[in-house]
Amino acid sequence: QVQLKETGPGLVQPTQTLSITCTVSGFSLTSYYMQWVRQTPGKGLEWMGFIRSGGSTEYNSEFKSRLSISRDTSKNQVFLKMNSLKTEDTGVYYCARDRAGDYWGQGVMVTVSS
Amino acid sequence: DIVMTQAPLSVSVTPGESASISCRSSKSLLHSNGITYVYWYLQKPGKSPQLLIYRMSNLASGVPDRFSGSGSETDFTLKISRVEAEDVGIYYCGQLLENPWTFGGGTKLELK
């Protein structure tokens, strides 16, 4: 069955870089878009960007200058990297399959604090 | 950016009754291909969002047919018939027409 699971640090210091891995099973990354969505107290649900089945990416301009999405199809993993973190980046980060988000991971809580 | 505005902020429903949630977009979500790119999600307490409706009126896999979506180019409605306890949570509409994809602020459904 389809499964997605995010793993990442629970706590990141301001100005540092956030790295989250989404490990998937039950489908191929070369057949589906994969997107990242976060949920913060200040802005609710925010779409961050996606990586297409072919490997190209598209980002929300809100994050474009500091966000990178990539993948390793051999490991069934998708990666989110975001630098220059601020306290406002505190929230839950989700990976989701396809444009519609037909499957979501359980999310990983990230706290940005010194 | 396209702004998605939901109403009401919260709704309280007697089990077995129906409920409707509205969503309005700041721009038409009707693409030239004839598809309207509005989606509905439910976030149950402590859980991740789950897809309910895609492209305005299509029921996602595994979603009970008590849920239905309808609308025009800018005004959309999610209807839940015969509300059950498992329907409790926060409902979000979202648009996938233009980058950045955006979501409404959510409507909380509670039981009376």
How would you describe this structure to a colleague?
The complex is a heterodimer of chains A (114) and B (112). Chain A is mostly beta strands and 114 residues long. Chain A is built from no helices and eleven strands. Chain A has strands spanning 3-7, 11-12, 18-25, 34-40, 44-51, 57-59, 67-72, 77-82, 91-97, 103-104, 108-112. In chain A, strands 2, 4, 5, 6, 9, 10 and 11 form a seven-stranded mixed β-sheet that branches. A four-stranded antiparallel β-sheet of chain A has the order 1-3-8-7, with no helix packed on it. In chain A, β9 and β10 (103-104) form a beta hairpin. Chain A is globular, with a radius of gyration of 13 Å. Chain A starts with a strand and ends with a strand. In chain B, 0% of the residues lie in helices and 48% in strands. Chain B has strands spanning 4-7, 10-13, 19-25, 38-43, 49-54, 58-59, 67-71, 75-80, 89-95, 102-103, 107-111. Chain B has no helices and eleven strands. The mean pLDDT of chain B is 97. Chain B is mostly beta strands. Classes of the chains: A mainly beta (114), B mainly beta (112). Chains A and B meet through β5 of A and β5 and β10 of B.
Count of distinct strands of chain B = 11
Question: How many β-strand stretches of chain A?
Answer: 11
Oligomer designation: heterodimer
Strand content of chain A: over 45%
Secondary structure: helix percent of chain A: under 10%
The separation of the N and C termini of chain A measures: 39 Å
Number of helices of chain B: 0
Beta-strand residue fraction of chain B? over 45%
Dominant shape of chain A: globular
User: Terminal Cα separation of chain B, in Å?
Assistant: 36 Å
Note poorly predicted spans of chain A.
none
N-to-C SSE string of chain A, H for helix and E for strand: EEEEEEEEEEE
